[in-house]
Structure formats: structure tokens, C-alpha cells
Amino acid sequence: MRRQKAPICRKVMEREVEMLDVVLVLIALATGGGGAGPERETLTLTPAEAPVAASSSEEAPPPVASSEETPAALPYEAEPQVATGRFLTALEIKPIMGATRANWVAVREWDGQDLIYVTHIWSWRCGLAAMKLGVNGAAPEDWPLPPCHEDTAQPNAMLESDGLPYRAFPLKSVETVTVELIYDDLTTERSTFNRQGVLMP
């Protein structure tokens, strides 16, 4: 009899954990993500202004540092920030990205290579204008985002035609990964992650 109850208890626990995830996302959305936290730099840009960096500070791994560089003016236009309920704008995804910062990237040792995954970022790409990535202190370079599939029920879904959400590097060569997200409201967040903080088992 006990053996039959164990799978039922496990299913109940799994549902409770899933509900907790939903509650946490709703709290993040309702509170605006808790404001600017440590280890990130937030920039607000308009086409006529030079960028001005916000403050940054230290935080425990996975982020190891935030750059204080001032990026060049962005070649994008801000999009209207209207809540759609479909997570298509910075207004909707910024609190989620702030709450899930530790999941932005992952490093995996596979088949004699280091693979850097950006699956989490791609999953929320509809509120982004661009994404940049730098490895081992190199300046972040553009990593093209797949299109947002607004004509479907799940616009952030990754389709086979979108390509693969990872890039390969020589084995054990990735020590740090710097990610810069440019939201469609032209605010920018940038974080650097150390290998140990984002290494997949």
C-alpha cells in the first residue's frame, strides 16, 4: 500500500513546486522585479542622449562583476510598452529576467567542448531588442536573436528553424561569460558570470 502512495505524494509535491514557481513569477511581475539589484548595470537610453551608467556593486556567484563601461548609442528604436499578457515587451519580461538572472547562461562540457547556452534568454526574447555575449573578458559581441513568433499562441517558443541556442568553445576554455541584454524599451542590463556559477553537471 505504501508503494502506491509514494507516486501520488511525489505528484502532489511536484504540483506544489510548480505552483510556487508561478507564485514567484507573479510576485516578481507585481513588484517590478525588486528594482536594481547588485551585479547589474541598468542603462536608459534615448536616441538624442549619450548613455549614462547606473551604479553597480558586487554579488555572490554566479555573477562575478558588472562592467562600468559606457556603451555607444544603440541603433534601435524604443518600442511602445503595453502589457499584452503574452510577454512581448520589456515591461513584461524585465521583472522575470531580473528574478532569474542566474539562469541567463549555462556552460556545459560536452563532446570535448565547452558549450555556452542562452536558452533562457531566447525563451524571453520577445521583449528584447538585442543580446550580446563576451567570453573571458572580451567585449560582448552581438548574438542574433531568433524572431518572435507573434502569429502563434506561444511567441517566445523556439522552433527548429530558429537554430540552436548555444555556441561551442574549446574544452575548459570558458572562465567567464559576460551577457548584455538590450530591452525593447532601450534599457540595458549587463552581468558577468564565472564558470563555476553556471557550469551544468
Automatic annotation (TrEMBL):
It comes from the Bacteria. Residues 49-71 are annotated as: Disordered. This is Uncharacterized protein. It comes from Sagittula stellata (strain ATCC 700073 / DSM 11524 / E-37).
